[in-house]
Structures are given as structure tokens and as C-alpha cells.
Amino acid sequence: MKRIIAAAACLSLLVVGVAFAAVGGGDVTIKYKKGQVVFSHDNHVGMGLECTKCHDKPFTDSKSHKTVTMKQMQKGASCGACHNGKTAFTVKGNCKNCHK
Predict the structure, then answer these.
(1) Fold adopted by 26-98
(2) pLDDT band (50, 70, 90) for residue 21
(3) Domain spans of the chain?
(4) How distant, in Å, are the alpha carbons of 7, 12, 22, 80, 97 from that of 83?
(5) Is a pLDDT exceeding 80 seen at residue 25?
(6) Of 55, 94, 47, nearest to 84 (Cα)?
């Protein structure tokens, strides 16, 4: 009987652990001539965004995604699709929010 209770407790902990496991692809470092940007999946998923909000549009994956300029982002490309000053802080004039 004790084995059954112990096994049930372990199974319960495993199920709860999986349910609360972090979702996402971790941090993605994007390197530019003028520095780098670290994109945090945890920050974005933690705000309640679903993966499908960004994948596969405007982002596919780090290997096939094309680098865009800040001008293009200010017109809604890439990060600028959400970071437009309405959905999230604007990319214009907030350099230190992303460029460390």
C-alpha cells in the first residue's frame, strides 16, 4: 500500500512539474555590427503571448529569419510588428530596452 501511495505521489509531482515547465525557446542572441540584442522568450511568453502570435509570422526561426534595419522595424517589420507604441513600447527611441 505504501508503494502505491509513493508511486502516486511521484506521478503527481511529475505531472505538476510538466504542467508548470517553462515554455519557449530560451534566449536568442542576435548579433549586429553595432552590438547585440538578446530576445527573451521567457519575457514574452510570461506576458501571456502564445507562440503562434509570432511564429511563423513575423518570425520563422533564427536560421531563416532575415535581418531587418531599424527603419524597417519602425514601419512594422520584425519586432516592429508589435513594438509600435500601441501593442508594446515602440522601437523608436528606446534603444536601451533591447540593445545592451
Answers:
(1) Cytochrome C3 (3.90.10)
(2) very low
(3) 26-98
(4) 48, 40, 24, 5, 11
(5) no
(6) 94
